[in-house]
Amino acid sequence: MSSRREILDLLRENARYTTEDLAHLTDFSESEVESIIEEFEEAGVICGYQAVVDWGAVETEEERVRATVELNVALDRETNYGDIADRIARFPEVTSLRLVSGDYDFDLEVEGDSMREVSHFISDKIAPIPEITQTVTHYIMESYKEQGMTFDDHDDDDRLSVSP
Amino acid sequence: MTFEPADRVDAVPPSGIRRFFELAEEMDDIISLGVGEPDFSAPWAAREAAITSLERGQTSYTANRGKRELRERIARYESDVHDLSYDAEDEILVTAGASEALDLAFRALLDPGDSLAVVQPCYVSYVPGATFAGVDVIDVPTRVEDEFKLTREVLEESGAAEADALVYCYPNNPTGATMTGDELVEVAAFCRENDLVVFADEIYADLTYEHDHTSIATLPGMRERTIVFNGFSKAFAMTGFRLGYAMGPPEAVTAMNRVHQYTMLSAPTTAQHAAIEALDDCREEVTDMATQYDRRRKYVLSQFEEMGLDCFPAAGAFYAFPECPWDDAGEFAEALLQSKSVAVVPGTAFGEGGAGHLRISYATGLEDLKEAMTRIADFVQ
């Protein structure tokens, strides 16, 4: 018997599945699929639907630059991690933000149209935040896998066309 | 001097699949639903174990029966997953695919002139394998109204009581039919009453969707008269590694090993290293792949329902076996290939018991599967 979780797995696999597709792939009816998705959306479990893009494969002259940034912060009695995260997450340049364990506190992903733009964003907007004590920026040179999808994985089907 | 095939080779006609294979090979951009192997690659951990074994130079023969470590892992896996208990020392034989294991069983455990009851429709190698071994075949045709399950009635009507051995495959290629433990009880009783040896091909055991798989060897009085066949090709998606195994009483396994040691010597060593890792560490991947097949199965069955084509509810392996809307399934498959570039296999390729049906493999990515089903619907309508 299918579980509601299966709907999430399938949408993670391909957000373009229609409710009809999802009903065919599971034991739910179309109307059940619709209401499950609606509940997930209302509860904030499904926050949105995005395409996974291999920017390296886009034929355009526009540069698209991404960087991951390690941030160290110093907390005081008035400020906690959540306060700092709230402030940083508001910038549209920031595409993801995570509190992590290890040598640094926050793991930040930033997107911009050029290295210059990303550099300025870090130096002008992020570094000056009083609680931030250190930033280390890593520009992403090439992306091989995003959100579970491998880019250019040469998985052409070379099996026999017909076999026993 | 000219080379003429030996009579027993001449007696075997070319595979019914061959014509479709040749036609399909000539065409570009076909979507093939005719492929009897997983579209997934072997789990990465297993592939890496194979690479590591090569880097370490582990390239020599192994023990004829297979590496001891692998046989122990197989014994543990079969005990954990299928409730089967076999001794790694003398009850398990590792072979080059389950197909080799079946061939060994036919040659090592049956004499020329013995008869083998073959449950049909069936995997394409059973009947030729019996012929190569000089063994007579008794057809046991299962019926669509029984959902292609083996019943006592079918066994009695076909004259299987006169056979020395019975071979079947559940979950089944090509029908996708499965049998529950309860349904196997009467088959087991028939085999005991008529002193039949059972060759149980359980290569698709881990791809059973509607109920747990039960091996006939777990039923009372059956372990001592059954050889169970399994392998890494289907559930572990390791077809190209060519690795299977047989499990049975020591005297049977010893006899099979005697043929094996003079023909194959030992199963591929690199593949054995990969298989040890697969059994140790890749069970989660097997579950994930089975989940994907199950989703595709539901999709394919729902599409046939929408098309108005009768398709019995396949519950295992990765095949659907709908009725063909034309009288001649071969003509239908050829026309579908020519006009819509979709390859399916006519049921007759798997014996006369498959007449009037098509084998549709859903071991194909969902996007291609959707496109193929749309084209089939167009063609049918």
Automatic annotation (TrEMBL), chain A:
<dbReference type="InterPro" id="IPR036388">
    <property type="entry name" value="WH-like_DNA-bd_sf"/>
</dbReference>
<dbReference type="GO" id="GO:0043565">
    <property type="term" value="F:sequence-specific DNA binding"/>
</dbReference>
<dbReference type="InterPro" id="IPR019888">
    <property type="entry name" value="Tscrpt_reg_AsnC-like"/>
</dbReference>
<feature type="domain" description="Transcription regulator AsnC/Lrp ligand binding">
    <location>
        <begin position="73"/>
        <end position="142"/>
    </location>
</feature>
<dbReference type="GO" id="GO:0005829">
    <property type="term" value="C:cytosol"/>
</dbReference>
<dbReference type="GO" id="GO:0043200">
    <property type="term" value="P:response to amino acid"/>
</dbReference>
<dbReference type="InterPro" id="IPR011008">
    <property type="entry name" value="Dimeric_a/b-barrel"/>
</dbReference>
<protein>
    <submittedName>
        <fullName>Lrp/AsnC family transcriptional regulator</fullName>
    </submittedName>
</protein>
<dbReference type="InterPro" id="IPR036390">
    <property type="entry name" value="WH_DNA-bd_sf"/>
</dbReference>
<dbReference type="InterPro" id="IPR019887">
    <property type="entry name" value="Tscrpt_reg_AsnC/Lrp_C"/>
</dbReference>
<dbReference type="Pfam" id="PF13412">
    <property type="entry name" value="HTH_24"/>
</dbReference>
<dbReference type="Pfam" id="PF01037">
    <property type="entry name" value="AsnC_trans_reg"/>
</dbReference>
UniProtKB/TrEMBL annotation, chain B:
<keyword id="KW-0808">Transferase</keyword>
<dbReference type="GO" id="GO:0008483">
    <property type="term" value="F:transaminase activity"/>
</dbReference>
<dbReference type="InterPro" id="IPR050596">
    <property type="entry name" value="AspAT/PAT-like"/>
</dbReference>
<keyword id="KW-0663">Pyridoxal phosphate</keyword>
<dbReference type="InterPro" id="IPR015422">
    <property type="entry name" value="PyrdxlP-dep_Trfase_small"/>
</dbReference>
<comment type="subunit">
    <text>Homodimer.</text>
</comment>
<dbReference type="InterPro" id="IPR004838">
    <property type="entry name" value="NHTrfase_class1_PyrdxlP-BS"/>
</dbReference>
<dbReference type="Pfam" id="PF00155">
    <property type="entry name" value="Aminotran_1_2"/>
</dbReference>
<dbReference type="GO" id="GO:0006520">
    <property type="term" value="P:amino acid metabolic process"/>
</dbReference>
<dbReference type="InterPro" id="IPR015421">
    <property type="entry name" value="PyrdxlP-dep_Trfase_major"/>
</dbReference>
<keyword id="KW-0032">Aminotransferase</keyword>
<protein>
    <recommendedName>
        <fullName>Aminotransferase</fullName>
        <ecNumber>2.6.1.-</ecNumber>
    </recommendedName>
</protein>
<comment type="similarity">
    <text>Belongs to the class-I pyridoxal-phosphate-dependent aminotransferase family.</text>
</comment>
<feature type="domain" description="Aminotransferase class I/classII large">
    <location>
        <begin position="29"/>
        <end position="376"/>
    </location>
</feature>
<dbReference type="InterPro" id="IPR004839">
    <property type="entry name" value="Aminotransferase_I/II_large"/>
</dbReference>
<dbReference type="GO" id="GO:0030170">
    <property type="term" value="F:pyridoxal phosphate binding"/>
</dbReference>
<dbReference type="InterPro" id="IPR015424">
    <property type="entry name" value="PyrdxlP-dep_Trfase"/>
</dbReference>
